[in-house]
Amino acid sequence: MQHRIFLVPHRGDPEVARRHWERRHGDLFTATPRLLGYTQNRPVDQEWDRGTARFCSETWFADRDAEREAYASPYYRDVVTPDEASFLDRDAAWASAVIGDSVPVVAEGIRVLWFDESPPPGASWVALDLARPVPAPGKGKRVHYAMVDGIAEALSLTRGAEVSLVCRSMGFAIPQRSV
Fold first, then answer.
1. Is residue 177 part of a domain?
2. What share of the chain is helix, strand, coil (3-state, %, to 5)?
3. Nearest to 56 by CA among 95, 108, 6, 98
4. Whole-model pTM above 0.90?
5. Where does the chain cross the membrane (predicted)?
6. What's the whole-number average pLDDT of the chain?
7. Which of 7-11, 14-18, 154-158, 173-177 has the lowest mean pLDDT?
8. Contact 58, 66 (CB under 8 A)
């Protein structure tokens, strides 16, 4: 399984970008050929208010070849790429493959992502090993995540740390395609 995580800043007006990503982009992206799973980790209002919100998504493909074929497809090139360019700063994007066994798991709810080797105590953290180092100011090749009961708990856990992202995870159903 090829699992990849993305972290991308917005382009243009943040509210317009946010609305587009949350209301339109997921439906376009899930039509990408060979895609097995897609999750948007949507920053909560407080992340937007403090100017730290970044778009964070995760994808799953059967393997690296399937992922390459998907991103080389006419659909991705002609539909998804122009859509992303309209609201994402693709040049400033960070992405990494997740190393190890990974299946498309939709963890819907309030999720804290910690882009650093050492998450704070107080949560049940799950570590994802990465092929690339996390973006600065984080360190190492691991991202941690924890599902928490609410936004207040998540914000208390992170205390505004630059290496964290408090979000609502939203999994998308992938349309069934004939082979």
1. no
2. 30, 30, 35
3. 6
4. yes
5. none
6. 92
7. 173-177
8. no
